[in-house]
Structures are given as C-alpha cells and as structure tokens.
Amino acid sequence: MKLPLIDVVTLVIYLLGMLAIGVYFSRRNTSTEEYFLGGRQFAGWVIGLSLVGTSISSVTFIAYPADGFKTAWLRYLPNLMLPLTAIIAVLFFIPIFRRYSLTTAYEYLEMRYGPGVRIYGAATFMFAQLVRISTILYLLSLLIQEVTGLDSTLSVVIAGGFVALYTIIGGIDAVIWTDVIQTIVLMLGGVVMLVVIVQALPGGLGQVFEVATAHDKLSFSDWNQGVSTPLTWDLSLLNKTGTMMLILGLTNWLTEYATNQNVIQRYIAARSEKEARKAVWVCVLGSLPIWAFYMFLGTALYVFYQQFPAVEAQQMLDGTRKAEEILPWFILNEMPVGLSGIVIAAALAAAMSSLDSSINSISTVGINDIYRRFLRQHASDAHYLRVAFAIATVSSMLMIGGALYILQADTTTLQDYGTILVSLFGGGLFGLYLIAFITDKCRGIIPWIGIGATLLFTGWTLALSNGWLDAAPPFDIYYTTILANGVMVTGIVLAWGIKKAFYRI
Known about the structure:
Distance between the termini: 78 Å
Order of helices and strands: HHHHHHHHEEHHHHHHHHHHH
Number of strands: 2
Number of domains: 1
CATH class: Mainly Alpha
Strand order of the largest sheet: 1-2
Shape: globular
C-alpha cells in the first residue's frame, strides 16, 4: 500500500459508512415505488444535494482543476446558463412530469408520440449511461491503482462491486442519501487541498490572485498551445465565442433537466411540487460554487507550481503529459500525511455519486419502460422488484465489464467510439421533448422523420469530424448538439406541415 495507515483508516471508515447506508435502507425496499422513488417523500434540500452529487462526477474533481491549471475558465462559461434553465424547469418541466404521476421521463414520450418513441428514448438513455459509468469506473480505478498499488483489474472489480452492492440493496434511498454525504465529502476534500496550497505559498491567497491575474488564468479566454486568446462575443458556428458557449450551455442544461432520467426521477421522488422546485434551486446554489471552486483549485495549482516548479507539472502544462494528472499528482506528492485519505475519499465521492445514480436509473427505466410495459404487464409488484434487483446487477456487471475492456483496449479509440454512438443516437433529444411539451398532434411516422433526420445529421457530422469522409465539418463540432436539436425540431415540424397540407388536398 502506498498510503500511510492513517489515510487508509480514513478511507475505510468512509467506505464502510456508504455500505452501512445501503444496508440500512435495504429494509425499506418492499415495493418498486419505494425502490425507485423512495415513496415520493423526499424533502427538497435532500433531493437538491443529491442532484449536486449526481451532476458533479469525476469531471468536477479531475477535469475542472485540469482546465484551471492548464488554460483558464472557458469550460465554466456554459454553467452560467444553469440558473435560466432552473427557472424554466420549475415553471414548466416539473409541473408536467409531476402532473401525470410518472416514474420515468420516457413514459411522457409514449403519451405524446406512441410506444415506439418511448423505447427509443429509454434505450438511448440506458446505452448512454452504460458508456458513461464504464468510463467513470475506469478513471476511478486508475486513481485507486495509483494510491494503493493494487492490480488494475482488481481495482476495477473492487470499486465497481462496492458501488453496485450498496446501490442494488439500498435503492433510491441509499443513492440519494449517499449522494448527500458524498457532496459534503467532495467539498471538504477540495477545501483541504486549497488550504494546503495557500499555506505553502509565501504570499498566501493573495499570491494566487496576483499571479493568476498576471498570467490571464482567471478569464474566460481561449487557450491554444499555451497562448491566451481573448474571447469574442459574436454569433459564429466556426469558433468558440462567449455567446455560442452560453447557447451551448443552455442547450445542454435544458437537455439535462427535461430529458435525463437521473434528474426527472428526483423531480418525482420529492414529496410535493414545491419541494421539487426547492430541490432545483438547492442544486443550482450548490453546483455553481462547487464548479467554480474546483476551477479555482486548478488555478491555485498553477500558481503553486510556479512557486515550487516540478518537471511533471511542467510536462502537464506543455502537453507532454495529460493535464488531468495534475490533481492526482498533487495528492500523492504534496498532501501531508493524514489528509490524503480525506482528499482521496472526495475523489471516490465524485465518481460514486454518479455511478450509483446511473445504476438505479437504468434499473428504473428497464423495469418501467421495457419489462413491465412490453414484456410482462400483469405480474406482482414483488416480481418487478426482484427483476429490478436483477437489472441493477446486470447493469453493474456490464459497467465493470466495460471498464475492464477500456483498461485492456486502446482506451482512446474505445472512448471515442462510445462518445460517437451516444452522440449519434442521443442527439436532438431535447428537440423531441420540446415538441412533445408543445403539442400532442405529432404521432405516427412524424416523430420518426425528425429522429431519422437527426440520425443522418449526427452521423454525417461524426463522419466528417473523424476523417471518414474527405471533407471537414462546416462548423465547430462543439455545436453539434445545438444543431442536432434544430434538425429534430425542423424535421418534425416539416413532416407535420406536409401531413396537414396533404390532408387538405
């Protein structure tokens, strides 16, 4: 083991606490209503902190500090559209999903479009979540391997098996309450690291701001090859501009808050519409500062290694090594004995809060949108609960298998293909819901024309961006999501218009 005994003890206490929560709530899981929704009795602040835990993931802990360290704060800019999305969600999305006492987001698609589109939405979600959690588990296993010296395969199996255990037995109650604790642990770990950095710097916190400002590290500027480029604010599909990044953020957050089962399930699990609205605002008020804090932590790491140069840190700045290694490197080489365990627990919390939510949501969608709806409609609730356990177990095994495959394969290629498939089948999903929110007249073949047009567009874009065709995309592929939703809406509206015109003839 590479960690001192005191840090190992800290980690063990944290992990045992997570497992104890799963065991405690396992006694409540006597129905699917309890297993999936906690009896719809959660308070808003609990749901809100759970949403924070679900949204932060390893991106917050690893990628944000890496961006703040190597570049500036451009990645943070899209997050500023979350408050506007929250306003739309509390006024529009939450009342819709709670009005019909739904369990999943995809039941609503059937109400508006028919059963086929429900299957499409559910299958797309489940596949995307499996790709996501396999990748997160793979990244988590690398950290475990680094700090403990365990074999890489064993690291995947232990981490995946542990998360699966408390999630499967504890249901949504365990997921939500562990997410609350993991959010707190994540912040505690970040604060500990920042305190260590500030105390080590001769000029303290003031030095961080002074050096960062002088090096343009606190701006929204775009960085290329270590050079800062001021961000423009014009409308352009060819470059990353401030306006386009905000539009991208709005599109992504609307997709998250209107279509993602991880979020919708929490709307429905709240004890009332008022508590669901409160949950969204708790998430906004919690997420934005946490994301900003971890961006600032990366900026502080840049200042730290300007003061105390290290070859490895310089390699991460010049691209010889990945910038995402900076935080694990700092933890292992700079953190005092006795504090590393807290910080590593924060890293585990960032990953586990995403893994458990996705496993439970996959099980929820698998039962309600596929098994109970199309395969076996009139079984007992006890039967559905047993199948829910089975789906969660299979999902966990696929997650572990996917992470092991990434570990053994060409990771870049595999992750690229996973991203490609998710983008291909999930593009334009918000556009599909947007039309559903507005009207119930677009049924039959009409939504499939929009879906088909979007698949063609995203497939064409991915072919161009990956060099499969002898041409380059006529726009920055960063904006594919925006355009895909436009194609979806346009395709459905045109198909509906043509159908109306045909009937008039």
